[in-house]
Structure formats: C-alpha cells, structure tokens
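Below is how a single chain appears once it has passed through the pipeline. First comes the sequence as given, then the structure the pipeline wrote out for it. We keep one example in the README because the format questions we get most often are answered faster by looking than by reading.
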Amino acid sequence: MNNARVALAQELHDGIAQDLVVLGFSIDHAISNCHEADLKNSLRQIRFTTTELIEKVRKQMHELRSSEPLMVPTGQVDT
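Resulting structure:
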C-alpha cells in the first residue's frame, strides 16, 4: 500500500504539479507583457487561483508520502 501511495505522489509531482507550475510561469509572463489594467487584474486572479491549486496538489503529495492514512470521504472505502 505504501509503495502505491509513493508512486501516486510521484506521478502527481511529475504530471499535474509540473503542468500547474508551467501554467503559473506562463501567466506571470502574460501579466508582465500586459498593459491593460482590467486584463492584468484578471490574469492576477487566475495566477492566484493557480497558486492555490499548486499548494493543494503539494499537500496531497505530502499526505500520500506520509505514513498517515489518507482521509476518505464518508461512504467510501480505502482499499
């Protein structure tokens, strides 16, 4: 079970986490080249949301790598 959790954490790191970081860099680049205030503010909000998503994925990766069991929503079984 623990090996599967570590493998899943690694897949998250190598996949979605890296993709979100690249997306964040792309948004940063767009913000730095934007000269329209309203659009720049919208891009900043998107960047903020992207940063929140990165933190959520990192937290999940940490939980998967830790020895503590994952929280399973009520009604579901941890297999």
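Residues 2-33 form the longest helix (32 residues).

See the next section for the split statistics.
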